[in-house]
Amino acid sequence: MRKNQLTSTLMTGVLVTCAVLITAAVVKREFLPSAAAAPGPDLRPRKLQNTAALAQTGQVMGRPDAPVKIVEFSDFQCPFCARAQEVIEKVRRRHPDRVAVVFRHFPLDAIHPHARTAAMASECAAEQGRFHAYHDALFARQDSIGTRAWEAFAADAGLRDLPAFRQCVDSRRHAGAVERDARVAAELGLQVTPSLIVNGELRPGLPTEEDLERWVLAGGR
């Protein structure tokens, strides 16, 4: 008898526990937002209008008269952007007369607190003709951004006038240029970095080397 009572008690406890868990699951589904259901960024390619104008502003890496310009919206603290830089540079070097990169800033301030200052520092490096070298220095030591002095990156990039560079960074002289690029990115509806525009098509996310090569040679299709 005691055994039957114990079994009955255990079964009752199991049923009550199951009922509580099921009720909690229903409540969570009905009243709490589901992380799985949250929409992710839209990574589908899409055609853009008047993309030639987007290539008129930004820092050009490569020949200014190159027939194919990859417009890149990027963030110096974004790890995917660092990986994209390697892919883009390989393709650009493979086609030095055909491909150039137009770098534009899209600092994701909410998750990369030093990206905006890094962007302004890169524009200060551009004043001494060293944007590309500073760009490479930032991505090469990306894990040091925010803890390493901006002048240390500038020294790596071969800037000659470090005091002038420091004064430029401290003055935030290029804050307007960085904000301009970020505003354009928002107007385009960009959601991720890197986002590339190749031959009139927006290509969000990290590209493979093979895909980027194909887009460049096949008109972005």
Characterization of this structure:
- The chain is 50% helix and 12% strand.
- It is α+β, with helices and mostly antiparallel strands.
- The chain has two domains: 38 residues; 172 residues, 3-Layer(aba) Sandwich (Glutaredoxin), CATH 3.40.30.10.
- A six-stranded mixed beta sheet has the order 1-6-5-3-4-2.
- A hairpin with a 2-residue loop joins strand 5 and strand 6.
- Helix 4 packs across helix 7 and helix 6 crosses helix 7.
- The longest helix is centred in the N-terminal third of the chain and has 30 residues.
- The radius of gyration is 25 Å and the shape is globular.
N-end to C-end Cα span? 78 Å
The rough form would be described as: globular
By CATH, the superfamily of the largest domain comes out as: Glutaredoxin
- Within the largest sheet, what's the order of strands? 1-6-5-3-4-2
Give the total of domains: 2
- Measured by DSSP, the beta-strand proportion falls in 5-15%
Total helical elements: 9
Q: Report the sheet with the most strands, covering strand number, pairing sense and barrel closure.
A: 6 strands, mixed
Would you give the CATH topology of the largest domain? Glutaredoxin
Feature tags:
6 strands; Glutaredoxin; single chain; 50% helix; 221 residues; alpha+beta
Q: Short summary of the structure?
A:
The chain has 221 residues and is an alpha+beta fold. 50% of the residues lie in helices and 12% in strands.
List the helices and strands and how they pair.
Elements: H1 2-31, E1 46-47, H2 51-54, E2 59-61, E3 68-74, H3 79-94, E4 99-105, H4 115-126, H5 131-140, H6 150-156, H7 162-171, H8 175-187, E5 195-198, E6 201-204, H9 209-217
Parallel strand pairs: 3-4
Antiparallel strand pairs: 1-6, 2-4, 3-5, 5-6
Helix pairs in contact: 4-5, 4-7, 6-7
